[in-house]
Amino acid sequence: MTSSPILRVVNYSKHFVLHEQGKTIPSSSQVNLAVYAGQLTALVGTTGAGKSTILKGIYRSYLPSSGQLLFRTRDKQEIDLAQADEHQILELRKNEIAYVTQFLHVLPRKSTEEVVAQPLLQRGMDRQEARDTAREMLAALNLPERLWGISPASFSGGEKQRVNLARGLVSRSRLLLLDEPTASLDRLTSERVVCLIESLKQEGLAILAIFHQPELVERMADHVVEVALPVEQDYILKETA
Q1: Using one digit for the tens of pLDDT, what is the confidence trace for 91-121?
Q2: Can you give the CATH number for the domain in which 1 is found?
Q3: Same domain, yes or no, for 90 and 208?
Q4: Are 116 and 81 found together in one domain?
Q5: Which of 179, 73, 63, 192 has its CA nearest to residue 139?
Q6: How large is the greatest C-alpha to C-alpha distance in the chain, in angstroms?
Q7: 151 near 112, Cβ under 8 Å?
Q8: Are the C-beta atoms of 134 and 120 separated by less than 8 Å?
C-alpha cells in the first residue's frame, strides 16, 4: 500500500450565485482531505455542510469556487481536477474515477444489464464478457434475475439504487466516490454492499464516501473528515446527488 494519497483536496470551497437575486449561497468551505489506495475516507457532517458538493467537485459535475483537487493518475501524473480540461476529465471518468450518486439516471430503453455493463464496454471489454461481469455484480447485489433484461426506469427506489451501485462498482476504478451507497436498501442488501466495498478496499481501491449511519463509519472508515457548515450563511443548500 502506498503512503502517497491518490487524491488530495486542498482548501476546496464551493458557492452558488443566484444572479437574479444578487445573493450567494455558500456550500463547502475550506475542505481539506486525503484519500489513499486500499482505504476509505468517510465524510460526515450535518445536512447542508456540502458533503455531496465535495464529491461533485471531484467528479467535476461542479467547478470549484477555489482550492485544489489533486489526483494522482495511474501513470503517476498529478492533475488538478479543478483546472483540468474536459477531455482529461472524460478520460479519467472512463478509466480511473467512478461516482455512485443517490439517484439513477439512465436512458429508458436500455436494459439493466446493459446499464451496468456500459463502463466496461467503454473501456473496450468484449460485449459478452462485459455482460457476464455485469450479471455477476447484479447477482451479488441481490437484484432478481427477472429484472436484468428490462429497463430500470420503472424500478423501485431500492432496486434503482442496486443498479446504480452495480454500475459504479463493476468498473473497479482506482478512485470510487460513494454518496450514501446504502440509502433505500434493505438490511440484507446493505450488508452485501458493505461486504463488496470492503472487498474493493482489499483490492486496493481508494474510496471517498458519505455515510449517515455512524455504525457504518465506525465499521468501514480508515479516516473520517467532518465537514462543517460554512460560516455566516444566509441559506442552507440541501445536498443533492
Answers
A1: 999 999 999 987 777 767 889 999 999 999 9
A2: 3.40.50.300
A3: yes
A4: no
A5: 192
A6: 55
A7: yes
A8: yes
State pLDDT tens for residues 121-163.
999 999 999 999 999 999 999 999 999 999 998 898 889 999 9
Task: Identify the pLDDT of residue 20.
Answer: 74
Q: Are residues 78 and 8 part of one domain?
A: yes
Query: Over the stretch 154-184, which tens digit does the pLDDT of each residue have?
Result: 898 889 999 999 999 999 999 999 999 988 8
Q: In what order do the strands lie in the sheet with 66-72?
A: 23-35, 7-18, 66-72, 78-80
Q: What is the DSSP string of 43-80?
A: EE--TTS-HHHHHHHHHTSS--SEEEEEEE-TTS-EEE
What band does 232 get if pLDDT is binned at 50, 70 and 90? low
How many Cβ atoms are within 10 Å of 124's Cβ, its own excluded? 7
Q: CA-to-CA distance for 227 and 48, rounded, in angstroms?
A: 10
Q: Which domain holds residue 73?
A: 1-96+174-184+204-241
Where among 131, 148, 172 does a domain terminate?
172
134, 116 Cβ separation under 8 angstroms: yes
DSSP code at position 222: S
Residue owning grid cell 447477482: 139
DSSP H stretches of helix in the chain = 51-59, 86-95, 112-122, 127-140, 157-170, 187-203, 214-220
In terms of Cβ atoms closer than 10 Å to its own Cβ (0-12, 13-18, 19+), residue 77 is exposed
